[in-house]
Amino acid sequence: MPFLSRQIENHVLTLTMSSPDTRNALTGPEQFLDFEQTCNEVNADKSIRVVVLTGAGSAFCAGGNVKDMRDRTGLFSGDPFDQADSYRDGIQRIPRAIYALNVPIIAAVNGPAVGAGCDLATMCDIRVASSNAMFAESFVKLGIIPGDGGAWFLPRAVGHSNASLMAFTGDAVKAPQALAMGLVSEVVEPEELLPRVHAIAASIAANPPHAVRLTKQLLRASQKATLDELLDKSAAFQAVCHAEADHHEAVAAFFEKRPGNYRSE
Fold first, then answer.
1. Most-buried pick from 101, 106, 161, 237 (CB within 10 A)?
2. Phi, psi angle pair for 5, to nearest 5°
């Protein structure tokens, strides 16, 4: 069985990490490859407009396998050079793949998101948490660092001070605190989590898909572009949008007070 189970409905692809017995821990190359291949397939399938990521069972994702760390097996075997290569060729494939997604991805954080699981949530564009959720950038408690890109994603999600607080202490952050620091956009009761996230996804998917994709590119570019660079890119993207048939359909739908009918390809 693949690690990521898939369900697609109304242009929304729901990915569920399906290893509840390990609390959806990220432990091996099959999982890393599953994320990478899935993201590549999403980018090639223009009918998919939004991705939702969640976990089966009580946890979102428990991060790495501490038993493998203890036994120095799998990702943690070999000398330091081997281990560095294992990170580059292994778990670091996930942040690269998710960051390269050209459609929005929403994390439906159903339970604990610990270590690499916390970082996985921050790789997503939007995060909604169950009241049962908990986040922990807990690497330091095991004498290691966030080797999966968390030091890049977390400050962008919560700011430098809050990221430092989480990373230096490794302490758990419960859902209300995560909401207060901006780590999540909303906190809902467990039974409301997927319905709420799918409602957000439906609202996104109802918009012209080319405009959503280009907007995501601009938001990502803004993380490292100067204002002049971003304005120039925005002008170019806007010209493309004005030439798109979906733009004309959106304007017509606006005046006719009806939903737009946009292309899936």
1. 106
2. -85, 150
Kindly list the structural domains of the chain, giving each domain's residue range(s) and its CATH number in brackets, ordered by start.
Answer: 4-204 (3.90.226.10), 208-256 (1.10.12)
Please tell me the predicted confidence (pLDDT) of residue 24: 95
β strands within 56-154, DSSP E: 105-109, 112-114, 126-130, 134-136
Report pLDDT for 77.
79
Q: Are 17 and 55 in contact (CB under 8 A)?
A: yes
Provide the Cα torsion 21, 23, 25, 27; round to 10°: -10
How confident is the model over 225-246, as pLDDT tens digits? Answer: 999 999 999 999 999 999 999 9
C-beta separation of 20 from 56 below 8 A: yes
Residue spans of the chain under pLDDT 50: none
Report the pLDDT value the prediction gives residue 69, as an integer from 0 to 100: 77
Widest pairwise Cα distance in the chain: 66
Alpha-carbon distance of 116 to 7, in angstroms, equals 24
Interhelix angle 227-243/245-256, nearest 10 degrees: 80
Question: Can you give the pTM of this predicted structure?
Answer: 0.94
